[in-house]
Automatic annotation (TrEMBL):
Belongs to the 'phage' integrase family. It comes from Staphylococcus aureus. Residues 106-223 form the Tyr recombinase domain. It holds the Pfam family Phage_integrase. One of its GO terms (molecular function) is DNA binding. The lineage of its organism: Bacteria, Bacillati, Bacillota, Bacilli, Bacillales. This is Integrase. Keywords: DNA integration, DNA recombination, DNA-binding. The keyword DNA-binding applies. It comes from the Bacteria.
Length: 233
């Protein structure tokens, strides 16, 4: 609760922190007083986490531990938090598969072409009208994302007033948080970008402008035909 009140973090970050906090709580015996926790006790827990989690996730869990000790030091007169200086996160050498996965973390032009051709095949051979429209929408989204290097949350958060068709620019000023909007009932609420540096304006090609027009038109039609459709703007 203290973190939610004072951190200024977005709901997605708070949700992640809550999950990490539950992991830490489950790992530490509830009968053990914080003043009695030793660095050896904590290190054994961290070592176990390191066996099954990524270094990044373990770091997030250790941050929770450090935050709890510092909170107790500041507000509950815990006098000694030197255990924090004695714990560390085991480093693991990257496997061949991990290195290969990092190198392959993008699509070659031939793979992009194959992916779009798969969408064309599905669109052509699907008889169900709704599924055909869905594939058309997803293809346009994927194509736009590939052309402009956007996070999927940023792409889905685009509103019509973010697009300047005349000057061929797009203002990226938010991302989607997947929670229900209490005002509209829509699933997905637009929030600020992941970081301040993510807020940006990019130039658009004629192809990207046409893709956005296609998506906008499709949303307008869906809004007319589908009573369950909720337009987020």
């Amino acid at each position: 609760e203290h973190y939610k009140t004072h951190s200024g973090s977005k709901p997605t970050t708070i949700k992640e922190k809550k999950s990490n906090t539950n992991t830490v709580k489950n790992a530490i015996d509830s009968k053990v007083l914080i003043s009695k926790i030793t660095h050896t006790y904590l290190q054994n827990i961290i070592n176990e986490w390191a066996k099954s989690h990524s270094i990044g996730h373990v770091q997030s869990l250790v941050i929770v531990i450090r935050s709890v000790f510092k909170y107790a030091f500041k507000y509950h007169d815990l006098h000694d938090i030197s255990v924090l200086d004695k714990i560390d996160i085991p480093k693991k050498a990257k496997t061949r598969n991990e290195l290969q996965a990092k190198r392959n973390n993008y699509l070659e032009d031939s793979e992009v072409k194959e992916l779009l051709q798969c969408f064309d095949y599905l669109i052509k051979h699907k008889r169900h009208a709704t599924r055909k429209r869905n594939y058309e929408m997803v293809k346009a989204l994927v194509e736009f994302q590939i052309n402009n290097g956007m996070r999927i949350g940023e792409l889905l958060a685009i509103k019509t007033d973010n697009v300047d068709v005349e000057n061929k620019t797009l203002e990226i000023d938010g991302t989607i948080n997947w929670v229900t909007d209490t005002e509209t009932g829509a699933f997905g609420v637009k929030e600020t970008t992941k970081t301040s540096k993510s807020y940006r304006t990019i130039g658009l090609t004629t192809q990207s402008i046409n893709l956005l027009k296609k998506l906008t038109l499709r949303n307008k039609k869906e809004n007319q035909w589908n009573t369950k459709f909720i337009d987020r703007g």
